Every structure is written in C-alpha cells, then in structure tokens.
Amino acid sequence: MVDVKSLLSVAFVLCWSSGFIGAKLGAGTADATTLLMWRFLPLAVVLVAVAAFSRAAWRGLKLRDAGRQTAIGALSQSGYLLSVYYAIQLGVSSGTTALIDGVQPLVAGALAGPLLRQYVSRRQWLGLWLGLAGVATVTVADAAAAGADVAWWAYFVPFLGMLSLVAATFLEGRSRAPVQPRVALTIHCATSAVLFSGMAVGFGAAAPPADSSFWVATAWLVVLPTFGGYGLYWLILRRSGITEVNTLMFLMAPVTAVWGALMFGEPFGVQTALGLAVGLAAVVVVRRGGGEGGGGGSRARSARVTRPTAEYSVVSGAERR
C-alpha cells in the first residue's frame, strides 16, 4: 500500500529544495527583483484568469479573510523569497542559504505552544534539537568553504526570511475561517506579483534579459517550488500541523547541499554527509513522538488536523496542475 503521507513529504522536500537551486540558476542572469517579478507576474495573471471561471471557490470569502491571506502571502512568499534570492545574489551558496533557514523548525516549535496551544512532546523536542545539530554541522562546513568571499552580514539575510516564513505560518495557524487553498494561492501570488513588480520598476530592473537561461530558471521556479513546494507546504501544514511540516524543513539543508554539489560543484564532504544523516534521524524521532505529550497538546493537534477532507481534495487537484 502506498503511504500518501510519505509521498507528500518526499515531494515537498524535493520541490521546496528546488527553489534554492532555481534561485542559484537565475542569480547570474538578472537582479533578484527582476527574477521574482517575472516569476510571479505571469503566474498571477493565469491564476486570476482561472479564478474568473471558478467563482464558486471564492463565494463566502470575507474582506477580512482576504486581507489576512494578503498578509500571509507578503510574509511567506515576498519577504521569504526576497531574502533567499538576495542572499544568493550576495554570494551565499544555495546550500548555506537552506542551512540557515533550517533553524525555522526550532523557532516554530518553541512558539507553537504559547501561540497556538500545539504543544511539542519531549521526544519531539529531542528530534528538533537533533535536527538543529545536523543543520549546524552542515552550516559550519559550508561557511568554512566559502571563506572570506562572502560578507559576514550576508548570512543574516536568509535568517530574516526564515522569521518571515515563521510569522506567516502562525498567522495562518490562528485563522478561524479556512480559505480554499486555490483561493489562498491566487491571493498570495497576486500579492507577490504586485510587490515584486513595484520593486523592480522602482529599481529600474523590470526589463527581463534576453538570455534564454533566465527563462529556463523562471519556468523552473514557477513549476517546482511554487506549485509543488509552496502548495505542499500549506497542504501538509493543514493535514498534520506545524511540528510535522517544520520538521521536514530540516531536510531542506542537506538535500539542497547534495543537489548544489551535483549541479554547481558546491562543497560536499564528510561533515555535510553527517549532517544529512542527523537530519534524517531527527525526522524519524519527531514523527514517532507525535503521540506523546500532554493531553491538551494532543487535543490541540487533533483539532488542527481535522479539517474538511473536501478541502484536501481541492488542493490536491489544484497543485497537480
């Protein structure tokens, strides 16, 4: 029997990691704002056009909920992606950028209790700290290989993006009215298209380059990380909760490091391999520890997971396109 949960997790890790690789592919062809503008502008036009023929999904959407989704999109897409692209543009490797983002699960896990009453069990905390150790192991190796070629402050740029994504995650977690995933994706992408287009025009970088590699990178970023990674992020979040989805984020760093080594020749040694093994162990520990912890935390997690199954079938069909 096929384990749907595992398949979704594997697909999510690969698609989300592909975003760092795509950013690296496009970094040498255009400014970060140019790449992001042309990633989201055509996508937003298509999604808005599709929305015009599927008005049923938009019925009942209140202005307050639309505003919340706009804020979530600005944080989870615009703020997060701008920091990632800018860091890579500054010379931070794709693997290192993913590694710095790897501290997100610990931050989200620490805040889930007081903010959402989704308390983390002792075994899950063990897995979270284990994952952090794996991320730190690979980060040290990549930073040492980069040497003095990258400014020290550049490593704080993706850290700001990580905080932006964490904020978006909790903002969505506190929402009482569920929004159709296809509706949320349309609002998020339209928000990013407006913000990035405004930035690109303001910086005089709106015109796309004639280089075909720019459009290859753009197509890569639209298909894999946007529809695949971003869509699966919210799907797994709604099915399994914050701890589950953020634990998978531990795998982004080592997977991206392997991918970057194969495609771009980025360093991958024994220390990086050790970090990969520790990250995998962390995922196993956290998943098996999901049934432990206080009764209040278990009930909160259960309440968060039991949303209408029709919503999941809708997002599955939308994200496969």
Secondary-structure class: mainly alpha
Poorly predicted residue ranges:
292-321
Number of helices: 14
**What is the number of strand segments?**
0
Query: How many domains in all?
Result: 1
Radius of gyration: 19 Å
Shape: globular
Reported for the largest beta sheet, the result is: none
- By oligomeric state, this entry counts as single chain
H/E series, N to C?
HHHHHHHHHHHHHH
Mean pLDDT across residues: 79
Portion of residues in beta strands equals: under 5%
From the N-terminal CA to the C-terminal CA, the straight-line distance is: 25 Å
Q: Helicity range of the residues?
A: over 70%
Structural write-up:
It is built from 14 helices and no strands. It has 321 residues and is mostly helical. The chain has one domain. Helix 10 runs antiparallel to helix 12 (270-288). The longest helix has 29 residues, at 212-240. It is globular. Residues 292-321 have low confidence and may be disordered.
Summary of the model, kept short:
With 321 residues, the chain is mostly helical. It has one domain (4-320).
Give the SSE layout.
Elements: H1 4-27, H2 32-52, H3 63-89, H4 94-101, H5 104-116, H6 122-146, H7 157-173, H8 181-202, H9 212-240, H10 242-248, H11 252-264, H12 270-288, H13 295-305, H14 309-320
